[in-house]
Amino acid sequence: MLRCDGAHLFPPSFTSASDMSRQRVAVVLAEEWYECLELHYPRLRLIEEGFVVHVVGPQAGQTYKASDMSRQRVAVVLAEEWYECLELHYPRLRLIEEGFVVHVVGPQAGQTYKSKEGYWAKSTATVGDVDPNLVDILVVPGGFCPDRLRRYPEILSFVSSCWNEGNGAAVGFICHGAWVPISARIVKGTCRD
Asked: What is the CATH number of the domain that holds 97?
């Protein structure tokens, strides 16, 4: 959801174009049922670049809903011992920032898994705890953990179900993470020379 800052082309605090030249300002117009990615990605990138971003729409104080927010979006990041730290934690944190409910899923719920670098990630669920029909994004980090994950039939079945059932989750794998979807037999026929 997004709340509109003002109902004018320029928020009331701006009296002239010269005011805008002294401040880095971007105005994003919003209408009801906007496309989430088309509005939020540019808005967040502009904020990262130091712009003051005002969301302006037809009515001040109006709350707008994204067209794809009819249910909470769910992401799963797989974990096992010896994962590559940045390849697990960075996608997890970015997905949380984007409003996803993120489950760190391992062979055992509540298990603490160490990265190659000595950091840890605690699994919040097992594959049996998460409905693959509700998964929008599945991330398989690299490191040595994919070699361990691909030995669990239930992990491979879950990856295959996320890919083939329900919404057809986007499956992302980083570096050696490709071993898991390859072992789950979902990659065959999807790559080109």
From this structure: 3.40.50.880
